[in-house]
Write a structure and sequence with these properties.
The chain crosses the membrane at residues 12-31, 43-63, 84-103, 133-152, 164-183, 195-216, 236-254, 350-379, 400-418, 424-442, 454-475, 487-506. The chain has 530 residues and is mainly alpha-helical. The protein has a domain at 11-265 and 276-361 and 398-403: Amino acid/polyamine transporter I (Up-down Bundle). Helices cover 70% and strands 1% of the residues. The protein contains 24 helices and two strands. A hairpin with a 2-residue loop joins strand 1 and strand 2 (128-129). The two termini are 27 Å apart.
Length: 530
């Protein structure tokens, strides 16, 4: 087995991996869930989500340009803050990506359940997949696996071919729905209980849990595949920023179409429930051919996203192995196809565990969203720290006003974690802390001095997680808390506390990062100053 990856991806192919990851099951269900949580103000939720994603993606783009390595998203924290923080951040990031693989399969089966056949309708009941639905989803996960099995070139060609189709279908659906039935008053809330019927808290919670963060999380895919990019310094920013901007336009069109077409019943936006939202709307307006196209795309769009996230999570596993926190076996790369096949098999098994533990799209999307937010936390901290510790290293992408932008990125990530509502925010934070025994086992060969050094750089992070959980518990009822901190003030408190932890986190960085942790894959690349 080899240890080198094939650098075969151009800028457009890299961007299509980001778009394919974003335009998956999120477009099939995101508009409905955002409307049920925020009403017409779901439009603001998508805009806010896109803005936050771009701020955080800017941090990742600077880091990815400096270190174009496989699984980059799980490696930056290890470089700047040592193995303990690196493992915690990598664990959250890996969970947020590998768990998307089964959720895309679940989305396809959920759409299938609205077909007019008894066997199809029996696949999904009361928000969860039946045994037959689980079996169908399991088969789809195998398809995603096979698309990755024969190399990155095969995967990239398939992905590029279907991504164009995946962009055309949702855009066409949105335009045709608006042409068939569009009640402009719905967008202002004139006939539906106001523009913001569930308040500002509904908008913020929609960003965190309704699938918006889940949708934009696809910007990580180009970064995790950077080790296979031909010209990463140019390709990475083009791919990351381009995919977020394009996906934002598509999701805004879809949200406007959904809001304009639907007339809420007596229960309001929160009372609406569709198993296949856009397909059922198309049928209601006699757009039967559009419904058929949507049923086909319900397989294609999630399949592209599922295959992309499996590719991304596999590179994350490879990156964690090269961090020294997973067995060497998972770092083996097939000499002919350039794919880390042991890591691919490992992620297939993890995807099946998530599939059988979380049997509905909405349930798993909320869990993924919170894991995603935790994975974002270290991006601004690492980027800010490296401005001090590696100030002279060339940066193909240099974020302007980094001190302000980085602080805002960390603050937004903390607020997203809070907006996810108690107790979900607390459960996921507890899950992160439960990773500690696994870390100790993986690093059992380290000396006491090495453990002590890792802990010194991680104190701030270990204090940060329970602090945010405590604020979530004590916060306002609008975010699931006990009301000890009044609504409005709770947002200010979380913002201020996050900025204090941001400063602490940057100061806790390793004074002299070990570049050998990142440079092992750069042989054959143009020299960029390392």
């Amino acid at each position: 087995m080899s240890s080198r990856l094939n650098r075969a991806l151009g800028p457009w192919q890299l961007m299509f991996t980001g778009l394919s990851a974003m335009i998956g099951s999120g477009w099939l269900f995101g508009a409905e869930r955002a409307a049920s949580t925020a009403g017409p103000a779901a439009i603001l939720a998508w805009l806010l989500g896109a803005f936050i994603a771009l701020v955080i993606a800017a941090m990742a783009t600077e880091l990815g340009g400096m270190f174009p390595v496989a699984g980059g998203m799980v490696r930056y924290a290890n470089l700047t803050h040592g193995p303990l923080v690196g493992f915690m951040a990598a664990g959250a990031n890996w969970l947020s990506i590998v768990s998307v693989v089964p959720v895309e399969a679940e989305a396809s089966v959920q759409y299938m359940s609205s077909w007019p056949f008894p066997w199809a309708r029996g696949m999904y009941h009361d928000g969860v997949l039946s045994p037959s639905g689980l079996a169908a989803a399991a088969v789809l996960v195998v398809v995603y696996f096979l698309l990755n099995f024969w190399g990155v070139r095969f995967f990239a060609r398939f992905n590029s071919a279907i991504t164009v189709f995946k962009l055309i279908v949702p855009a066409t659906t949105a335009v045709l729905l608006m042409a068939s039935s569009f009640h402009a008053g719905n967008l202002t809330g004139a006939e539906t209980g106001g523009f913001m019927p569930y308040g500002l808290s509904g908008v913020l919670t929609a960003v965190a849990t309704s699938g918006i963060v889940f949708a934009f999380n696809g910007f990580q895919s180009p970064l995790n595949l950077a080790g296979e990019a031909r010209n990463p310094g140019r390709s990475i920013p083009f791919a990351v920023i381009g995919s977020v901007a394009t996906a934002t336009v598509i999701y805004l069109l879809l949200q406007c179409a959904y809001l304009g077409a639907v007339r809420p019943g007596a229960g309001g936006w929160a009372g609406l429930s569709f198993s296949s939202p856009f397909a059922q709307l198309a049928i209601a307006f006699n757009l039967n051919w559009v419904a058929m196209l949507l049923y086909f795309d319900a397989f294609l769009a999630p399949s592209g996203a599922g295959a992309t996230h499996l590719a991304s999570s596999t590179r994350m596993t490879l990156g964690m192995q090269r961090n020294g926190t997973l067995p060497d076996l998972l770092g083996a790369i097939h000499p002919e196809y350039g794919v880390p096949r042991p890591a691919l098999w490992f992620n297939l098994g993890a995807a099946y565990i998530f599939l059988f533990c979380f049997r509905g799209w909405g349930i798993l999307a909320a869990v993924i969203s919170v894991c995603t937010v935790i994975s974002y936390l270290m991006l601004p901290i690492s980027a800010l720290a490296l401005r001090h510790t590696l100030a002279d290293r060339p940066r193909p992408v240099r974020v302007p006003v980094m001190r302000l932008t980085g602080a805002l990125a960390f603050m937004f990530s903390s607020l997203l974690l809070y907006w996810a509502r108690w107790p979900l925010s607390g459960y996921i934070i507890l899950l992160m802390l439960l990773l500690l025994p696994l870390y100790l086992w993986c690093r059992r060969q380290d000396s006491w001095a090495q453990h002590r050094a890792a802990a010194r750089h991680a104190v701030w992070f270990m204090v940060y997680l329970p602090t945010i959980a405590a604020l979530s518990y004590a916060g306002s009822p609008q975010f699931g808390g006990h009301g000890w901190i009044p609504y409005g003030w709770d947002l200010i408190v979380v913002a201020v506390v996050s900025l204090l932890f941001c400063m602490w986190g940057v100061r806790s960085a390793v004074a002299a990062p070990d570049l050998s942790l990142m440079d092992e894959e750069d042989d054959g690349l143009p020299d960029i100053g390392h």
